[in-house]
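Researcher: Quick test of sequence recovery. Tokens follow.
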């Protein structure tokens, strides 16, 4: 029987439950982090926990109620034994917990905190993705939920369903002014010569940890980075397009809205993908 960690104790999966008054269940009042673990060690754990604190601050949730880096490391090491693989996906979910009916949260929340560890099979970065631009969903740079990993994921779910209806792997979500922001689960990048491109923060995207890592790498290797706004139609000007997140690493994009993108083997994509994968496996700090 798979186990999870919930509110201070390890529990069998079928024994972990929420009260019907939990605000995360009723209102989506909470946030989460998805992390990669390799041989029991969580990659970029300190950075993930810093971002978890940022999520908490954005919704005025008491940071001191969150587990510590040491707590999460020990919990994941224990749960990892049930995975029986080298890699696992870790999800740390925080709900504000129960409260009275209405929108205002309780002054002294009693949160629900859940940590799960599940098997994960890394994907070849060269296994290309087919992306389609969502016609339904836009990123709102003013949205609190859009700026954190909110447990209300309906926008991403709707965009993913839309891409699936086109026989695509994922959706490109645009900003409110029609420029490329990100996909449902990853940041997006382009390569043109020795220049790296990615959408600017003002598109309403969620700045992922893999994005931060890549931008640091670009600075360290002396590569120029462009944040110029791009419409989906402008993506075919790049030598290659790829996505990045802290779980899957890098994934090359084969097609955007049915149009074939460039050849990644002719760029520095392979080098960068290996650098990111090595960091995820060895837990190198950001």
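Model:
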């Amino acid at each position: 029987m798979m186990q999870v960690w919930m509110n201070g104790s390890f529990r069998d999966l079928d024994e972990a439950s929420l009260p019907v008054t939990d605000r995360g269940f009723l209102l989506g009042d909470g946030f989460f982090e998805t992390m990669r673990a390799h041989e029991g060690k969580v990659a970029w754990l300190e950075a993930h926990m810093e971002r978890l604190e940022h999520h908490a601050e954005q919704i005025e949730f008491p940071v001191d109620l969150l587990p510590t880096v040491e707590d999460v490391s020990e919990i994941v090491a224990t749960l990892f034994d049930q995975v029986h693989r080298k890699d696992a996906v870790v999800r740390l979910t925080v709900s504000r917990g129960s409260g009275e009916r209405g929108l205002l949260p309780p002054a002294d929340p009693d949160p629900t905190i859940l940590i799960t560890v599940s098997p994960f099979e890394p994907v070849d970065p060269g296994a290309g993705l087919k992306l389609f631009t969502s016609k339904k969903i836009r990123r709102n740079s003013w949205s609190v939920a859009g700026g954190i990993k909110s447990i209300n994921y309906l926008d991403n779910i709707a965009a993913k369903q839309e891409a699936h209806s086109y026989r695509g792997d994922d959706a490109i979500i645009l900003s409110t002014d029609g420029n490329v922001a990100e996909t449902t689960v990853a940041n997006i990048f382009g390569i043109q010569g020795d220049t790296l491109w990615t959408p600017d923060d003002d598109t309403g995207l969620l700045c992922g940890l893999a994005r931060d890592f890549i931008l640091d790498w670009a600075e360290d290797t002396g590569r120029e980075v462009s944040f110029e706004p791009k419409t989906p139609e402008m993506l075919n000007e790049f030598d290659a397009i790829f996505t990045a997140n802290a779980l899957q690493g890098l994934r090359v994009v084969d097609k955007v809205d049915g149009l074939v993108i460039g050849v990644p083997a002719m760029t520095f994509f392979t080098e960068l993908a290996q650098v990111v994968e090595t960091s995820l496996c060895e837990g190198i700090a950001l």
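The mean pLDDT is 95.
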